[in-house]
Write a structure and sequence with these properties.
About 65% of the residues lie in helices and about 0% in strands. It is globular, with a radius of gyration of 18 Å. It has helices spanning about 1-25, 35-60, 70, 90-115, 120-145, 150-170, 175-185, 195-205, 230-240, 245. By secondary structure, it is mostly helical. The chain has one domain (about 1-245): Ferritin (Up-down Bundle). Helix 4 packs across helix 6 (about 150-170).
Length: about 250
């Protein structure tokens, strides 16, 4: 069960790491200083959660593993983040849409994970919920602000909401690792989160005067990230992130 638990932990950690990396790309490039600082701080929040999870995985695995072993010494197929988070950051509206979808999921996910039989995961979830509550408030407010703004901002926000909709189905598509951990009382039953997530999304979009994407039962959606099958974008992201450790193994400062 240890190896299955480790992969489940890595799945959660990889989401935080990759999302945090994408948000960090806005440092010095956001539309206003306040947002620049906010996005940078949120990137640190996500990477901080990833660190806690990588530390826990290293503790379970042993073999001289450390928290740095997982982000710097795995190849693309060994990462398990959902596809939405590895896509290029795009424009500001696209970043807000991606954050909004993921923040809403994380908010309900961490609430449920607090009840995990794994005490360490439950503790990480409790701490992370405080941060993700702020993240969701930030992204929701910007969805509303852009939706109720100018004609151009409304158009860009609406386009971004539709663009990423096909990636959100992966949040609620369980793989074999999640199913095994659910049976052990460790993982979250993500299917139960879907109506809660949809309600959160719908309420904010209504306030923003943004059309809710059509939600056809059984509609096709992008998936594969949880099983290590990724878009071309993750390879480029890892090439940048892992460059130093790959070039100078064991380097420290």
């Amino acid at each position: 069960m240890n190896q299955t638990l480790i992969q489940y932990i890595l799945q959660l950690a990889d989401n935080g790491l990759i999302h945090g990396h994408r948000l960090s790309e806005w440092c010095g490039h956001a539309p206003i200083l306040e947002v620049d600082i906010a996005l940078s701080n949120m990137a640190l929040d996500h990477i901080g959660v990833a660190r806690s999870l990588y530390q826990y995985a290293a503790q379970l695995e042993g073999n001289e593993k450390t928290e740095d072993s997982y982000p710097y010494h795995r190849d693309v197929r060994e990462f398990y983040n959902v596809l939405l988070l590895e896509l290029p950051k795009g424009d500001f509206a696209e970043t807000i849409a991606r954050c909004f979808y993921f923040d809403a999921f994380q908010f309900h996910f961490y609430q449920a994970l607090q009840k995990s039989k794994d005490a360490q995961l439950a503790a990480i979830a409790e701490k992370s919920l405080k941060e993700v509550t702020y993240h969701l408030r930030f992204s929701s407010e910007w969805v509303i602000r852009l939706g109720d703004g100018t004609e151009e901002s409304k158009h860009k926000m609406q386009r971004a909401i539709h663009k990423y909709w096909e990636y959100t189905g992966e949040f609620f598509d369980s793989n074999s690792i999640e199913e095994k951990m659910l049976a052990e009382g460790i993982a979250v039953n993500i299917l139960l989160l879907k109506p809660l997530w949809e309600k959160t999304i719908a309420e904010t979009l209504q306030e923003a005067s943004i059309a809710y994407p059509l939600n056809k039962e059984g509609a096709w959606f992008h998936k594969g990230g949880k099983d290590g099958i990724h878009t071309e974008h993750l390879g480029f992201l890892l090439a940048e992130m892992q460059y130093l450790q790959r070039s100078y193994p064991g380097a420290s400062w």
